[in-house]
Amino acid sequence: MPTSRSYRDSCAIARALDVVGERWALLVVRELLLAPRRFSELRHALPHVSSNLLADRLRELEHNGVIRRRQAPAADPRAYELTEWGRKLEPIVLALGDWGSDAPEPPAPAALSATSVLIFLRGAARPDPAAPPTTCRLELDGRVWTVRLASGRVEVEPGEPATAAASLRADPKTLSTLLVDPATLATACADGSVAVVGDLSAIGRLLHAVSDPWPSDDHHSRSVTYR
User: Fold this and answer.
1) What is the Cα–Cα distance from 119 to 224, expressed in whole angstroms?
2) Cα–Cα distance between 141 and 113 in angstroms, integer?
3) Whole-model pTM?
4) In the chain, domain spans
5) For the CA atoms of 193, 184, 139, 166, what is the dihedral angle to 10 degrees?
6) How far apart are CA 169 and CA 146, in angstroms?
7) What are the tens digits of pLDDT across the range 171-186?
8) Given its phi and psi angles, is residue 159 left (phi above 0), alpha (psi -120 to 50 degrees) or beta?
9) 145-174: pLDDT as tens digits
10) What CA–CA distance (Å, rounded) separates 152 from 216?
11) Which of 1.10.10.10, 1.20.1250.20, 3.30.2290.10, 1.10.260.40 would CATH assign to domain 12-100?
């Protein structure tokens, strides 16, 4: 059953935790930062939460105005999305991820969702601002994402790109490894854990934008280590 527990504290921090402080709530928010998700997709991204507990968190977040069922025309009403108020949690969640990068790794087997890796990619990548724009297609866990490198930044959007210099298919943990060490790309292609179609150098530029980012005065303040 959804919880009705409260800190009964008037401080705004306590009131915020009344809304999103229950276990798994902020991870649901994390999974909705880049795209709406169905229940089954959230369950796949958060494999260590039970179906009943996830359903409880979704009901609580919906009741409290953090998430809602999709309302756009022709949208899938079974998918959840962040409300405008819920969207304001994004910088908080990203800052929490940055802070948590110094926390110890969990014991194996540990989950790593595609959203987590893409948030890390978006926050940590700093491509050469003088380089021509490049669009890549990423396929992670059966879902396609459009990744654009332009003007020293990386943009991540759900869905197929109109055109792409290259396409990469991998699982999230393999992509995470590649972002840390792009030199493993050739080995990953050879052993079949990664499939690349198109301009291999475009994928290389994307990976090196994280492992060897272009210098930026505000790089530290905007980077997010969130994997």
Assistant:
1) 8
2) 9
3) 0.90
4) 12-100, 114-222
5) -120
6) 12
7) 999 999 999 999 999 9
8) left
9) 999 999 999 999 999 999 999 999 999 999
10) 9
11) 1.10.10.10
